Amino acid sequence: MRRAILERFRAEHGDKRIAMLPQEFIVRTLGKRSPAAARNWLKTLRGLLEFAVSEKFRADDPTRGVKLPKLPKSDGIATWTEEEIQAFEARHPIGSRPRLAFALLLFTAQRRGDVVRMGRQHVRNGAISVRQQKTGASLEIPIHYDLQTVLDATPSEHLTFLVTEFGKPFAPAGFGNWFRDQCNEAGLPKHCSAHGLRKAACRRLAEAGCTAHQIAAISGHASLREVERYTKAVDQARLAKDAIRKEQLRTSSGKPGA
Question: How far is CA 250 from CA 240, 241, 253, in A?
């Protein structure tokens, strides 16, 4: 990405002296780009100018003091809804590779990089042993009966449950692309992703009444801040329903014939 940015910069301004590059030009150029593109462009140019200063091509770095544009706030990766979950299950039956991948993601609450490494050798005493690549955490995740049904219906002769069409283990990025294709087949929107199923698993656990610590024991989150978002959302919805129910009971009790 940075090479492409620098090549375009060279094509447009390669005939000018780097020592004459003014800060006003940098600020003006940033204003013509989207926040994400502006951040990438500024970071790339800073690398070029740091090199220019170190090689004595200019005495100062005109990007100093120029702030990175703020990115718009985002809710992050979308959590699958129950309707989206049902749509995937309707398209990909039990016994198929897509359904196996889906079940492993949804019922273990693990990242795609951990799911693609799972195999039958990791199953012991009704649980799947996971050592998370990102955190290094070792987890023992009890196998949900729906996941067990899918595992029993999907024979595997490989070291990993999930393999490519050539019988090789998936790389995380390749798995993400393949799973996106399966979502497309189910007619699901672009925001449905493998990681979104991890979030859906946490949401379901919260809706079942699990505490943040219980959810983290399955998902392996190092911080409770993320999983507390699910429990707080469920608590808010439950409290709101109770409040409305109590108010309706109070007002209806005062009506004639109540």
Answer: 15, 14, 5
